[in-house]
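Lab manual, section 2.4: Encoding a predicted structure.

Procedure: take the sequence of the chain (375 residues), apply the prediction step described in section 2.3, and record the output as structure tokens. A sample record is shown.
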Amino acid sequence: MHQYNALDPSIEIVCYKDGFKGLLSGDYVVIDALARKTARVLVASGGSPIGNSRVKLTNLADCVKRGLVAEGEVPLEVAAAQLKKDGVTILHTIGGDDTNTQAAKVSEFLKAHSYTVTVVGLPKTIDNDVVPIRQSLGAWTAAEQGAVFFENVVNESSANPRMLIIHECMGRDCGYLTAATAQAYRERLNSQWFIEEMGFRKAKKEVHAVYIPEVAVDIEKEAARLKALMDDVGCVNIFLSEGAGVKDIVAQMEAKGEEVPRDAFGHVKLDKINPGQWFAATFGPMIQAEKVLVQKSGYFARSAAANAKDRQLIEECVDVGIKSALQGVSGCVGHDEERGDELRACEFERIAGGKAFDAKLPWFTEMLTQIGQTA
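Recorded output:
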């Protein structure tokens, strides 16, 4: 809003409440002059001022179930008709691959019916798993905040002998956030003072294992290593990606004939199958933990206001996004890894989720070596 106002105050801006839910119902707010001039204060706030609803326009059954469209209506058609009715010519979407590709489908539908809407998306997802975008908005902040979160949680290791603490980081297919959070935490840990003589050992607060979907976990081997650490240090701290072990857990549930809960996008509901508890139940007895604590930093981390590094990236992406929109160029804005990291509006047909974290990156392999874990 700030950039649009500085560029051309005459451009009308509306915000659909709760994303696609508001679009389907025509529920929006018009940004007045005062809001336009003071929009920058939102930079210091976490979350989304206009909300989100996780609606998939191509999931007819879910849209009907949620009362967003009536039986017989097609969500894409309803959304397209609403944009046309409201006179929208530029649609900006903020979210992951699902959000942006859904908006692109609306644009394609409108174009086929002789009404052009330029759709420009911003890749906001802490997973940092959008293809082909190098860095999604919010991932740096989430890693930093996840590290802050664990700085307090790790002190629980002194509350009980032989404590196993599992720090579960939010992330479905991508291990980036877990790896980056562990790195950020260890960097902060290195700035602290310890008094070894009093048992205030750095080893008690160290990261002892990092488990991500991209690296297979040898349970037996890791249990033996962690058992030795538990015997020596008196506690074990694991950083776990929510997506780690999901395939094994789902396979076990399906083998038992249990229903695997999924969201409107067909993704497994991680909060329902609970990978953290699965790893806790698996490792706890094997390393003879007397108490097991699973703590999730996801909501704490993702709801934080953007840090300085992310704010700079956001402003750069917004500048390019506005230029692209006014030139009629649709796409999702980010540094295009397949085009020499050029900051541009990446074509929607190339946008996809589930980009795997490169577990061979030097900073990650070096971290694993330092904590005694082999990749």
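Check your result against the sample. The chain has two domains: 2-135+304-350, 139-303.
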